Amino acid sequence: MSVSTVSKALNDNPSISTLTKERVVKLANEWNYIPNEAARHFKQSKSFTLGLVIPDLLDQFYVLAINGVEAVAGDNKYQVIVAQSHEDTEKEAQIIQNLISNRVDGVIIAISKNTKTTALFQRLEQTGIPVVFLSRSLNDPGFDSVVTDNKHAAELAIDYLIKKQHRRIAHLMGPKALGTSHLRHEAYRMALEKRGISYDPSLVKEIDFSVTQTDEVMEALFALPDPPTALFTFKSYVSLDALRFIKENYPQKLQQVAIVGFGNLPLIQYLDHKPSASIDENSFDMGIAAATLLLKHIENESDQPLPASTLHIPCKLIVHHS
Amino acid sequence: MSVSTVSKALNDNPSISTLTKERVVKLANEWNYIPNEAARHFKQSKSFTLGLVIPDLLDQFYVLAINGVEAVAGDNKYQVIVAQSHEDTEKEAQIIQNLISNRVDGVIIAISKNTKTTALFQRLEQTGIPVVFLSRSLNDPGFDSVVTDNKHAAELAIDYLIKKQHRRIAHLMGPKALGTSHLRHEAYRMALEKRGISYDPSLVKEIDFSVTQTDEVMEALFALPDPPTALFTFKSYVSLDALRFIKENYPQKLQQVAIVGFGNLPLIQYLDHKPSASIDENSFDMGIAAATLLLKHIENESDQPLPASTLHIPCKLIVHHS
DNA sequence: TTGTAGGCGTTATCAA
DNA sequence: TTGATAACGCCTACAA
Asked: How many Å from the CA of A45 to C1' of D10?
């Protein structure tokens, strides 16, 4: 029996008789034959693989997003390769190079905090590999992205804090290199002004996610003549660092200073002193949205590429009760 | 110019003139040519890929192990595909099937808590794909594994608790299906008896990692006529659940009950009420050891397979200061 | 020093 | 209904 007959039989090709199919399947099982997916993909010049690049697997926000991506990918017979950049632009470039080498069908990426250039991503698109930015987007509107609805998030947070009588609300802003940092900063500013609180630049401090810098910034904020009574942070891991700083250095302020940040992390449930509230970014849903959008590009057969779009995923405020 | 000349030029084959090489490399760069790794692997019938199967990415223990595996893999030009079983044997089987389909060169796996049969793993080995079990091993000595030195861990924990005047030390034992659960249980028993504390089976309770079951078990333990004053847990996530149970239901016991478990998780640093201590399993090193062992098998050219071995990774006790 | 040809496992096309 | 063949992109003998 020829290879082609076997191939057709296993793929349930209608041109093969039922009897032959049965015999083939039986033998295939007996001999534990498993088709070589790699060869198949090679032949089809399609890998049925999505590359997913994230800064760090220890960040639960991304893990939840991964789960969302994997769910959609699995439903559509795609695999997912997860790679960590460890917030290193160089490593990130290496990963992307590698993903191109392996001819993944598409890439979802949460860029590292230092990534500024778009060259690599243009290269991907040129190679015919669509890219979707997750959570952290470039400033370039030419790319697809799935992001938190930062504006709404800031309003939820500021509303909550104002209701709790806070007027001096500081913002621990993300690294300037990230477009998301500016979006959140702007959203914070708008939300404040809309509610009649004038924006005070001395209450805005850039952080780089390191403990030491957060400590410095907190020290500076508390040294102000009129220090903040509330913090709005770029992400909840910063909230946690800030909280620890307060516990260690200003324990008397622990009950007074309210903290709200982006990301409702599962680990918060274990804490005794929780941040006051968190923005639940629905990162699982963000993963789903990113993967769905990416697949739409991948499976777009027309000669025209789909126009780039930015999806704002709705979020909600979760108040933590300590 | 022929493809073979180009291929040789790019691979720096000595039979190609320097001039030709230069011209080829120049054009390759100009045209953004990136070799198709998939085709290369296909040709070599080698994927330079390791499969890494773990229960859950939200468990920081495994994330650290992943980092270890990735470090070794990267140094040896191998890629890593990470897949989550979500503690589901069926999903796990699917993943392994998929890894075989994709002809990975080797597999590292932390089996799900329900996995009992070895059939799948034998299938892998038969297919010529070596397997290394990580942390959670089967009872079968025919397979390679990298595990915590459970015996030493139990001694460290029990010594610590005894020094703190505890005599009634309960064990929250892992799921019976896991070989590791029995090893740790046995290590606990031995450590106790060696120190003149008789083993009391009423102080041993099996848990399945669910919050509800941990709650039930804790309730039962505290309802004993002579309840435990210390807990030795299968893993630190169980320690955290137990801690929460105590805070919510027996707050007066919070300061008295000592808890020690396997796994020194990064998230513990954020807690106010920490477990008393944790076994630092050095999971990063476990990942390194597993990957190194696996690569040794993969790169074993001899016709004889290497004998199976079990590596016990040294661990230490980390005392947490609340 | 360069080119030609064969093959890795699979599928699609076309012929038998 | 089945079989032979070419092709996917790359590498490697071997021939020129």
From this structure: 14
